[in-house]
UniProtKB/TrEMBL annotation:
InterPro entries: Methyltransf_25 (IPR041698), SAM-dependent_MTases_sf (IPR029063)
One Gene Ontology MF term: methyltransferase activity
Gene Ontology BP, a term: methylation
Keyword Kinase in record: no
Native species: Streptomyces cupreus
Short name of one Pfam family: Methyltransf_25
Protein name: Class I SAM-dependent methyltransferase
UniProt entry tagged with the keyword Nucleotide-binding: no
Length: 217
């Protein structure tokens, strides 16, 4: 079956911008305190649950993957872009990084203790999100956690430039209530939400959702 065109656009665009992305996007230490706090809370939850490793989906150059590893989490990264994966492996040779798509994860059912989707789903057309979140549900162990963070709104963006290079991806900003509903439709229970207005380096509203796959009866 042919690859969806949006995946091709995302892969090619991030292969193009990879080196400049690393230079221009601040590291986790420069995140706002609330976002770092959500990552720290997620790390504690998955460590305590001990249900399996965490997959950082859409890991880019691996800096947030390494941040979670520094918090004591068994974690590996997955990204669509070979160039991003190459940079991640070069920067963090002790961690595992693999190429892959959120639409079809190469993982067993119930394999993961946690999933991090950190600013990595907004290039996914809304009609594909149910498939992506179904994959999250499939691969999470019962009782496992998802931390999702991204921009929110009600807008479709079609940039022609990104990080100083031509790009062909699109971005889809959805209201937080809609994201919550999509996760719950996939069988994931949202247990916490954080909404933040633009501020500092971030010029759009953004949010985090913490969700959990129910334990089996």
């Amino acid at each position: 079956m042919a690859e969806p065109s949006f995946l091709t656009a995302v892969r090619e665009s991030y292969d193009t911008v990879a080196a400049d992305y690393v230079e221009r996007v601040p590291p986790p230490a420069a995140m706002d305190p609330l976002s770092r706090g959500m990552l720290a809370g997620f790390a504690e939850l998955v460590r305590t649950a001990g249900l399996g490793p965490v997959a950082d989906l859409g890991c880019g150059p691996g800096r947030v993957t390494a941040h979670l590893a520094g918090l004591g989490v068994s974690v590996f990264g997955v990204d669509l872009s070979p160039k991003m994966i190459g940079l991640a492996r070069q920067a963090y040779p002790s961690l595992r990084f693999t190429e892959g798509s959120m639409t079809a994860l190469e993982m067993r059912d119930d394999e993961l203790g946690g999933i991090l989707a950190w600013y990595s789903t907004h290039h996914t057309p809304p009609q594909w999100l149910p498939d992506v979140f179904a994959e999250f549900h499939r691969t999470l162990a019962p009782g496992g956690y998802l931390l999702w963070g991204d921009y929110v709104g009600d807008e479709r963006l079609q940039p022609t430039q990104g990080y100083g290079h031509p790009v062909s991806y699109e971005s889809y900003l959805l209201p937080l209530n809609r994201m919550t509903g999509l996760l719950e439709q996939a069988g994931l229970l949202v247990t916490a939400r954080l909404e933040q207005e633009p501020g500092g380096r971030v010029n759009r509203p953004h949010a985090c959702l913490l969700a959990r796959k129910p334990e089996k009866p």
